[in-house]
What does this fold into?
Amino acid sequence: MISQEHKDLLAAGARNRYLPLNCWCPNQCKFCYEKDFSKTFPQVSTKYAPLYTNEAFDFFYEKFSDFQKNNRKELDPRNKGTGIQLTRRGFEYFPMCDFFNLGLTPAQIEKIIPLQNVFYTTGLNLDLSLVRYLTRKYPRKFRLHLSVVTFDPLIRKDLMHPGIDTGNLKKICNIAFRPTYFLLYFNKEQIVSDIGILNKPALKNKGSLYIHKLYYGKFSPQIVKDYADKAEEHFKAIIYYLKGNDKKLGDISGRLRFSPASKIYSWVFQKEISRLLKTAKGAKDAAIFCSKGAYPLIRGSERGIRVIPVENSIGGCVDFALGIRVRSIIRKLRELSAGGNVLKHAFLPSSMFVAGNKFDLSADSIDLIRQEFPGIKVKVIDVPSKILHSTLSLEACFRYFLLKEFKG
Ligand code: SF4
It folds into this structure.
C-alpha cells in the first residue's frame, strides 16, 4: 500500500506533468541549483518520491492520464517548470529532471510516451536500443530534450557526471527524431566544435539547438562561477560566428534558439516592457520594483517614477525576477520610509511570484507587504508567459550587439 503522502506527491507531479524524482538527481551536474534549493529557500520543503514500485507507477499513470485528458486547465501555467506547489502541507518542491533515471521499466516508459511530449535527459543510463525502438515506434510523440551541455572533454570533466558515456550520447543524438540539443555556451571554440558534431544530425533528423547561459547561485562551486563569468566575455564572438556562418551551417538560424543574459532579454522586449509599465505611468509617489537584469532598461525608460532593483535570493549571477523575495521588497520599503520617502504605489513584477501571483519562492505572501504598509497600494504587473517562457533568435542576439556597437 502506498501512503497518502506518497499519493499526494505523485498527484502533484501528475498535475505538473512530470514524475517527481526519488532522490537527488543522479546526474549531479556541478551547476545544479537543486542540491542548494533547501538552503536558499528553507521555508519550502523538498519532497522526493519513494521508489516507483508497480503500484506507485500505476497510481501516477492513472492520475497523469486523468489530468491530461480532463483537467488540463487546473495546471497553473505560472508554476509550470518550477516544480513548486502549494499543497495542503504548505509550499513543497518536487524535484524533477531526468525521466530515464527513475528506475522505470521499458514497458512503463513506453506507457508514458503517448501522454507526454518531451523527455529531458543528459544521457546517463539511457539505453541506445530503447531510444531506437521508441523513435521508430513513436516518431511523432517521442521527443528527447538532450542536455548535452558540451562535448568538450575538459569542461565535461569539470562539470558533468563522469558516468555519462559521450560515445553513447553522440549515437543517441544521431538517431533521435526531432530532438532538442541543449548546450551551454562557454567559449567560441567550444560552440564551434559542439555545433560541428550536432548540426549534421540536427539537419538529418529535424532537430533544433538551444544554447543557454550558465547560471550560478551563491552556493555554487567556484569552478562554475569561473566558467560562467568567462562565458559572458565570449558570447558576442559566438553570436558573430553563427551569424557569419549561417548559410554555411545550413541556415542554422532557423533551428537555433538562445537563452542569454537577462540584459539581452530586456533589450529585446523593451517595447513590451514599456507597454506593461503603462499601468504605473501617472501614478504619484510610486516605485517600480524589478530584477537587477531589467533595471537598466526600466530605469532608462521610466521618467518621473522611482525604479528600484531588488537582489535575487538565489544570489550569484542570477538577476531575473523569479527568486526575488517579498521580504527584500519590504526591506527596500523600510529603507525608503526611513529616508522620509512616502510611497503611495508599489508595482511588482508577476514573475517573482508563484501560485497565482501571491507567493514568492520562499512561500511568503504579498499580503505581508500590505500588512506592514497599509498606506501603499501594491499592484502586480502581469508579465505575460510570452515573455516569461521565451527564447531568443540568433537575429535578436546579433542585433543587440550590433546596436550596442553602433551606439558605442
Ligand atoms: S540534470 Fe538537472 S536536476 Fe539533474 S543534476 Fe543536472 S541540472 Fe540538476
The chain has a mean pLDDT of 89. Residues 25, 27-29, 32, 34, 97-98, 122 surround iron/sulfur cluster (CB under 6 Å).
